[in-house]
Each structure stands twice: as C-alpha cells, then as structure tokens.
Amino acid sequence: MLVLGLVVLLAFKTEALNNGLALTPTMGWLHWERFMCNIDCAKDPDNCISEKLFMAMADMMVKDGWKDAGYEFVCIDDCWPSFERDAQGRMQADPVRFPGGIKKLADYVHSKGLKLGIYADVGRKTCGGYPGSLGYYETDAQTFADWEVDLLKFDGCYMDRTLIAEGYVNMSIALNKTGRSIVYSCEWPLYDWKVEMPDYPAIRDTCNHWRNYYDVYDSWQSVKYILDWTADHQDILVPVAGPGGWNDPDMLVIGNYGLSFAQQESQMALWAMMAAPLIMSNDLRDIDPRSKEVLQNKHIIAINQDSLGMQGYRTTQVNFFELWERRLSKNRLAIAILNNYEIGYPREFLISSSPTWKYCTKVCNVTQILPTYQELGIQTPTTNLTVKVKPSGTALLIIAPLNKASWDMDKKTLKKGLFGKWWKKTYAVKNNNSF
Ligand SMILES: *[C@@H]1O[C@H](CO)[C@@H](O)[C@H](O)[C@H]1NC(C)=O
Ligand SMILES: *[C@@H]1O[C@H](CO)[C@@H](O)[C@H](O)[C@H]1NC(C)=O
Ligand SMILES: *[C@@H]1O[C@H](CO)[C@@H](O)[C@H](O)[C@H]1NC(C)=O
Ligand SMILES: *[C@@H]1O[C@H](CO)[C@@H](O)[C@H](O)[C@H]1NC(C)=O
C-alpha cells in the first residue's frame, strides 16, 4: 500500500503552491476593465485610480451584500504607483492620488472585514510604464507585506521571455519569505503561450491562479473567445486546476455596458463551471439590480466554490447548443447549456439528451438554477424534461443521485477521461489517493 502510494506521488505530483490560500477560487473586485488607467483626478475625481475609488468600492461591498455573497478582495490594478521609487528603493503610491498611502488604504479595507489586492510586474516596467519589480522582488514583496496587502497580481510586461519563469518563481519565494499570507495571481502562462506550451506543473507550484489568455473586454465576443479558447485547451487546463491553484479566464464584466442580461448570466454560469476566480470589474456604486442579482446568485456561487475543486469542461456542441459539465462534491454534476444560435427566441433543450444524463440509471434529482431557480425533483432516465435557453443565454442545472443504485458514477467511471486525468494529477496526491 505504501509502495503504491509512493508511485502515484512520484508519477503525478502536481502540488499547489504551499501557502494554504485560494482553496476555492478567489472572489472580489478589480479596477482594471472598468476603470483602466484613468489617472486624471482633476477632470474625473470620482472615477480616477485613487484611494477614494477603492474606499468607495469597499463601502459598497459591505453595504450592498457583496461581502455577504462571498466577494472578499478589493484589488488595485496598474497605474497606482509613483514613477519613482523612494530613497530606499521601495515602491510608493502616487502621492496625489493616494495621499494616505497603501498601508492606510489596507487598514481601511481591513476595517470593513475585506482584503486588499495590489498589482506589480515581473519585468522592468508595468504594462502602463510604472516601475517594474525586476531586481526588486524581495524589496517589493516585503513592502507589500509591510503594507499588509493580501493579494498580488503580478503582470508580465517588459520581461525577457527566457527569464519569465525564474522571475515568477523568485517572486513567489520572496512572498513566502515575508511570512505574510498573500494570494499570488500570475500572468505567467499568458506570456508563455505566445511562444510555447507553458510548464503548468511549475506554474501550479508557484501561483494561486494564473491568466492563460488575453484580457477580457466589455463584449460578448470577448467572453466567447475566452470560452472557446479554454474549451479548445481543456485537456491541458482542466487537470492542473484544483484547490490552491486555478486557471484565471479574467474578470467578470457583468454590470457594465457590453453584455445583455442573458449574456451576463452566461458569463456568470460558465465562470462558475470553469472554477474561475470571480473577480468583478464594474462600478458597484452604479449597477443594474438585475446584474447585481446575477453576480450575487448564491446557487451559481456555490457551484463556483464547490469543495471538490474540479474545473468543468465542454462535453459537446450540438444543434447550436454547447454543453459543459462540472463534477461537484457529493457525486453531483452541474451542467450548463449555452444557446449559440444568436437569433430568435428561447430554444428548447431536452435535458436527458445531455451526455451527463447517462449517469442517471434509475432516478435522480434535478435542480434548475438558470434561467430561474426551480427544484425539478426526482426524474427517471426516460424523463422528457426540457429547458428553454435564450439566444446567447445559458441554462444551468445540478443533477444529483438519490442513492448509489440510482447513479452510475462509480470510481471506474470517474477515473476515465478528463476527470481521471485531473483526479490523478491534482486530487489524489493531496487527498491520500481516495475519495
Ligand atoms: C512558505 O513555504 C512553506 C514551505 O512550503 C510553507 O510551509 C509556509 O506555509 C509558506 N509560508 C507562507 C507565508 O506562504
Ligand atoms: C532568481 O533568483 C536566482 C537565485 O537567487 C538568481 O540567480 C536569478 O538571477 C533570479 N532571477 C531573476 C529573473 O530575478
Ligand atoms: C433534491 O434537491 C433539492 C435541492 O437542490 C433538495 O431540496 C431536495 O431535498 C432534493 N430531493 C431529494 C428527494 O433528495
Ligand atoms: C418522451 O418522449 C418520447 C418521444 O416523444 C416518448 O417516446 C416517450 O414515451 C416520452 N417519455 C415519457 C416518460 O414521457
């Protein structure tokens, strides 16, 4: 038994970064997509990148139920620093826009029971041209720890490609050395993919989540590109995600200008299926109640935060429907049905025609989460249950077994395909090789 365990360990070891963080996908808010590099506080005092903006978002997160829904991190992106380091070589916040400095902002955010994220870059400069951390990893890690920052988004601009891996690893070590718990959000594979296949086991060892693909824009086309790219690479991506380390398809743009309500539901549902960090970029002071409802939907969030921690994947595309499934704890399965026929009216989809339905051998319990929450109850293999899916909208359901006999998902079945790959690489090691 011992020998067998050892073999499994050596053959499939893909440990998550050992900082005990991000055991479920990170949830929070990040300024980039909505507020970008708006530094003109004279012209636009309420929306420029300043301590006022982050304090206002922290206030809203508590006041409007975001914190209660699970959104915890208030994150700063690029364009916060001064162009000059201080006399000791430390980064400093822009003195005009952050007169209290980052430590004071962190104190404010912590006083609300929330956490603060900050942004830096592995190279010579940030993407916006501010000081990069190359040559300063330990100094910057210690500075962020001294400020009591809780998350670092580490970008990859202005970096020699051959040094990228080393840079991300060195910063991970530097963060660890500070002794402070800091979630480490990387963009390492995004820069690798441009040239070669990223070293995902190393990335999982180093980072809590990692961006693979280009920045999200405020459009359905952008969300679709990200989904398609992720599905096209799911054989690589799914096995490396799990508690402590996640693929990051970038921010939720729900509540902005670009997505219809059906599309907002689709982004939320599919980000939950992908076990993605749920990091919104929107204006919490001015958000449509329907967008808020989607973002705070506790049933969708529960799928995203499921303790098994397996990323979902696309199972099939048929008749302009696209099907995703995600295995959940307690032997349950979530399925998402995206209607890619972007014309006309809501189209009917027969739930029992989904590939997942094969597990329902006698009876199973179906709960519909989107388009509306409905407990559809006990169903049989021949059930003719349908769901109507809006153009570019998504239906989301959970299928649960009633007992072992009603459900054909024994260990053998589970170890096949993508699930099996994931199980061996990511799950078995951490969980002593057992369910
Ligand atoms: C640093 O790494 C060690 C060894 O992997 C780990 O036990 C420890 O919890 C880490 N500390 C932090 C603050 O991440
Ligand atoms: C990473 O750290 C190693 C060991 O200290 C050092 O030799 C190397 O130059 C560092 N690389 C970068 C990109 O900072
Ligand atoms: C079916 O699932 C719903 C929740 O999704 C639950 O409330 C209900 O009790 C379940 N029914 C059975 C018979 O297990
Ligand atoms: C479901 O629909 C099919 C085809 O219309 C039919 O043959 C079957 O009897 C129906 N099943 C039930 C349980 O109603």
UniProtKB/TrEMBL annotation:
Entry-linked Pfam families: Melibiase_2, Melibiase_2_C
Protein name: Alpha-galactosidase
Quaternary assembly: Homodimer.
GO cellular component: extracellular region; lysosome; membrane
Native source species: Cynoglossus semilaevis (Tongue sole)
A molecular function GO annotation: alpha-galactosidase activity
Signal peptide: 1-16
Family of the protein in this entry: Belongs to the glycosyl hydrolase 27 family.
Taxonomy of the source species: Eukaryota, Metazoa, Chordata, Craniata, Vertebrata
InterPro entries the record matches: Aldolase_TIM, GH, Glyco_hydro_27, Glyco_hydro_27/36_CS, Glyco_hydro_b, Melibiase/NAGA_C
Keyword Disulfide bond: yes
Keywords carried by this UniProt record: Disulfide bond, Glycoprotein, Glycosidase, Hydrolase, Lipid metabolism, Lysosome, Signal
Catalytic activity: Hydrolysis of terminal, non-reducing alpha-D-galactose residues in alpha-D-galactosides, including galactose oligosaccharides, galactomannans and galactolipids; a globoside Gb3Cer (d18:1(4E)) + H2O = a beta-D-Gal-(1->4)-beta-D-Glc-(1<->1)-Cer(d18:1(4E)) + D-galactose; a globoside Gb3Cer + H2O = a beta-D-galactosyl-(1->4)-beta-D-glucosyl-(1<->1)-ceramide + D-galactose
EC number: 3.2.1.-
